[in-house]
Design brief:
Length: about 160
Amino acid sequence: GRFRNILVHNGLQEQLFAQVIKLLREKGLLLKKGTIVDSTIISAPSSTKNQDKQRDPDAHQVKKGNEWHFGYKAHIGVDKDSGLIHTLKVTAANVHDVTMTSKLLTGEETVVYGDSGYLGAEKREDAIITNHSGKHIRYKINRRPSQMKKGSARSQAQ
């Protein structure tokens, strides 16, 4: 609620998070073999006006399914083995998931998992194709059900 909004408005959420990640790395709790990428919408009040009688200029609206949401989007990178979040980026809600993929990777992973919002991530100009060790990064992105062929064992396994 209010605490989260104070962090976002002052740009402190990423600094605070960076300190937590630093501690986790020092303790050896992040394994960094693979990353799961995802995002979630953080709602902001759409009717609240600031001193200039404007809605929050950093928040935007986005349609998810059949519903419209106003606010921000938290993009996260999660260590696939420990389940710990290693990367957090906050944007306006209308920023598409796939555009943030490369910003969510550590550069040490060998595999990236994501939902259909990340389709085509490995083909983008800013895509990270090899990790710091020079190994190829595999992107395992789920496709939308409408993109899978009915009855295909391969399409059901992905």
